Amino acid sequence: MHTLVLLGLVGLLAQLVDGSLGMAYGVTSTTLLLVIGATPATASATVHLAQIGTTLASGASHWRLGNVDWSVVRRIALPGAVGAFAGATFLSHISTQTAAPLMSGILLLLGIYIVARFTIWQPRRGQLGKPVRRRFLAPLGVLAGFIDSTGGGGWGPVGTPALLASGRIEPRKVIGSIDSSEFIIAIAASGGFLVGLGTSGINFAWAAVLLVGGVIAAPIAAWIVRVIPPRVLGSAVGGVIILSNTRAILAGELVTLPGTAQIALYTAIALVWGAAITWSLRAHLAERRATAATEGHEPDPTAAETVQAHDSSTRS
Q1: Alpha helix (H) ranges present in the chain?
Q2: Region annotation Disordered: residue ranges (predicted)?
């Protein structure tokens, strides 16, 4: 019973983060399942089954709040489903733990880029609103879907920074679109695990508890992503990517550091991340004040017409 309650809380917190930042539900939940003794394939299969419900709730919440670009969802979801199914069947027979640190290294570089971009400068205004090309979305979907299944999570960490880096979609719609398309990915991955493992490879009780916690958090997360300023949201997303993938690299065999050095590294990352969010928030407030001042000094056309009409009537 204690394990089920803990899993419910994890599902709630994981979905709260995932729905507001576009990532981390699968990574967080899979990590806990591995800690309590699940095999990688069983953990990923259980989490993806739960995600069928959580991603449906999250996508519906984002849709109601206008956070979804459906053209992006259509172009990335089907290739992603192909990658997710292939990754699930692959993981059912072969472990990919050796490749995880290398994948995390790529994601770490993307996270650093995102933090720099949204902290130091905004996405190019000329690019915002332009359609994202299919030849970019299709390979991205296949790669993100494959990593998501084999790593127990990855659709958000791969898809979100790539779409943010394009500069063509505002952050809230990037997150809403990634979360909505993940529903298709979860179905495809679950189908792959059922083919590779059968029903005995999935803990349905764990999946149900994770689902309940995630469904409760989905509408709250969709509201959070709507009200957070884009610059602050971009810096926050980048920080999550950096921290989560630094931890994955240090947990693997690619890089080894003593305990003291790891603590110093995590502290440095946290300080830089906090400074980036603070800088982005101040920049957003400064921009808002500048916009308000500009609008306040613009002449009111209605008032000018009224004065002109009054002068004309007086002269006549």
Answers
A1: 2-21, 25-35, 40-64, 70-91, 100-120, 134-151, 155-166, 171-197, 204-227, 230-251, 259-297, 301-315
A2: 290-316
